[in-house]
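User: Second chain of the day. Same drill as before.
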Amino acid sequence: QVRLVESGGGLVQAGGSLRLSCAASGLTFSGYNMGWYRQAPGKEREFVARITRGSGNTYYADSVKGRFTCSRDNTKNTVYLQMNSLKPEDTAIYYCRVEGRGDWGRGTQVTVSS
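Assistant: Same format as last time:
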């Protein structure tokens, strides 16, 4: 059974930083692309970032490009999202996902105050 556990969310002022983690179990982590998504109140869940298996290529939504960095540690079965220069509009629940399988974590709340 695949399990994804996000952590690292919290309350931060605009301009601040947070580092999210997503620990995976129940799968061969290194064999999957991993994604980060977010859902703000009243809005649909949206793509934030993706990191591929193998080469670890990364892709970002335009709204976070240059501010967020996605990385992974296959020895720890963990994917990270470093978020810098946070804005109030980044406020959302952040989820990680096993791309291609559709497994989701329960999410971690990020709140950015102005």
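The radius of gyration is 13 Å.

User: Great, on to the next one.
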